[in-house]
Every structure is written in structure tokens, then in C-alpha cells.
Amino acid sequence: MRLIDELVARLGARDPMFTCGWGDRQALEAIVTGGLFVADDAAAPAVKRTPAQSRFAGARALDLAFPSPATSLPPEVSTATVRHLEPLRPREERAAVVVLAASREEGYGLREAIWSKLATDEGVDVFLLENAYYGSRRARGQRSASLPTVVDQLRMNLATLAEVDALLRHFARERFSRTAVTGFSMGGAMAALAGALLRRSFAVVPMAATIRPATIYTEGLLSRSVAFEALDVDGRVVDARGRLAEVLDVADLSRLAAPVCRAATVVVGCTVDGFVAREGTVALAEHWGAELRWVRGGHVSALFSGRRAMRRAVLDAIERLPTPVDQARHVRMASP
């Protein structure tokens, strides 16, 4: 299982990230100084729906699109796109889950394979967000899912948070009673950040995530895919790794609050993960006071062997959410 992670890391290193360096230095410093945040006065987005080509017994697939609330994206990237798996037999108390993409995961195929059963068998609406700069949202001239600059990475992360917030507002307008955000690897890190930064009551289930995401890029197997030679600091490549860690520590979860509804948080780790250190996953669960579950497998193999356990974790977290009336009370108590 660990060998599979090693092989995937070796293949990923053939197409490294950040080959064009840091990107716009002024924008970089603005993000690092300002931190990650989401505007709390946004309105629910105007969502366009069209039938999708995917077919499922027990659910219909729709493609959703809405203007991204993120203002720093280039025009060709600025429309958020989402695959919605709508159950033909939804729950009486309607439930929705947003599933976020892993690093360099383009399209919906893998997530559909893992999560469609929530729609077809459990009556939960599933929403798969396509990340900015991935798949149909690539920037002009972008040749692959390996982002050319660090600023692109941070803009993607900020856009993901803003778009998750927009989807949660959309769910409220559509009268969903229970909502959740989950994801695997980078998707898990973004789900955790959404739980920490969006001060409303929803279930949070980060998978294969760590308390300090910077370590994934500077210490783990994914660091082999980082073009550190392009991130020199005043001509000294030796300082690039440390500087990248400082920049990405804007997402250090130990500096942020726990989700509003701690009872509805479940942290899921992989037993032999080659990309995410076990102690980082444990630290995240301890920081939140959340339940910690383990699925057997490595970072890659768990996506195949651990699917049922992953879906179960999301269902259990959704069931632990308070009633809509109690959810409003949770939000008021969690507000500063």
C-alpha cells in the first residue's frame, strides 16, 4: 500500500508544481498578510442547471454553474462548476454533502464512483465542486493540473472556500435541513478549513488531512512534485522549502477555531498513508475534539478499499447535526 503511494509520487514528480515560481509577489504578500477569510455578507448565488451525461440508477446527474464569489480569478476560471447527483428518492429531511477535489484531481469520475451511492442508496444530494484551475476551469495557456505558481495555488484555495460558502447559502435557500462538507487529501484540507472559517452549523468530515497542510508540500511525498529550484529566495534554493512552509502556514488549522458543531465532525485517516503523517491527522482530531476514524490502506489504495467506511463517516456526521432550530442556536453561540 505504501509502495503504491511511492509509485504515484514518482509519477507525479514528472509534472512538477510551481515551475513558474511564486507568481505575483504583491498578491502573494496580500494573501499571507490578510490570511484566509470568506466574506460573511454574500448572497446565495444564481445557479444555472443543465442535465449531465452521467447516468445512475436511483439518481439523476445535473451540471450546475454560478459566478464564483472569488474576485481574483481570471475570467475563464471565474464560473464555478458543480456536478449534482440528485436522488430520485430524497430523504424526508433533505440532506446535502459537498465533496471537494484532491490535488490535481480534474473532473468528477473518481468522486462519482466513491460518492454516488449516497445519492442512489441513501437519498443524500451530492455536490462535486470542480476546483478553479482544474478540468473545465483551467486558465488560458495552462497545460496541466500542476499549477504553475504558488499564487495560483492560494487563489484556488480561496476560491474553493468562497464557493463552498456559496453552495451552503444555496442549500439554505433550497431548504436542505442537513448539510456536510467532505473531501480527501487536499479536498480534506479544504473541508477542514471550511469548517474552521465558515461559522455556521454543518457536518465536517476531512479525510487524509493534517493539522498543518504546509507539511504536505514541504515534507511528504507530494514535496517531490514541487519545483523548489523555481522558488529560490534571493538566489538561495536552500531557503525555498522554509519560505514555502511559511507561506502555506496561512492554512495552519492549529491557529483556527474548531467547527461550529463539533459533534458533527469526524476526522478520517489512512492507516499507512505515505503522503500524510499519522501524527498530523491525530493532532487535527485532538485540536477539534472530534471523533477520529481510520480506514485501512495507503493514501491511494484507501480510495478503493475504504469507500464504504468513508461514506459511513459522512452519514454518521450528518445524523449528528442538530435540528434546524438547534442549528441556529449553535451558530449564535459560536459567533464572536
What does this structure look like?
The protein has 336 residues and is α/β, with parallel strands linked by helices. The chain has one domain (2-334): Rossmann fold (3-Layer(aba) Sandwich), CATH 3.40.50. It has helices at residues 2-12, 25-34, 109-122, 150-173, 186-197, 214-218, 240-248, 278-288, 302-305, 307-319, 324-334, and strands at residues 48-56, 59-67, 79-87, 95-100, 125-130, 178-184, 203-207, 266-270, 291-295. Strands 1-2-3-5-4-6-7 form a 7-stranded mixed β-sheet, sandwiched between helices. The mean pLDDT is 93.
Helix vs. strand class = alpha/beta
The shape, in one word, is globular
Count the strands?
Answer: 9
Strand content: 15-25%
Task: Assign the CATH topology.
Answer: Rossmann fold
SSE string, helices as H and strands as E: HHEEEEHEHEHEHHEHEHHH
Mean pLDDT: 93
- The helix fraction, in percent, is 25-40%
Could you describe the largest sheet, including whether it forms a barrel?
A: 7 strands, mixed
CATH architecture: 3-Layer(aba) Sandwich
Sequence of strands across the biggest β-sheet: 1-2-3-5-4-6-7
Determine the N-to-C terminus distance.
44 Å
Overall tally of structural domains: 1
CATH superfamily caption: Alpha/Beta hydrolase fold, catalytic domain
Our Rg estimate from Cα atoms comes to 19 Å
How many separate helices? 11
For this structure, what is the CATH class? Answer: Alpha Beta
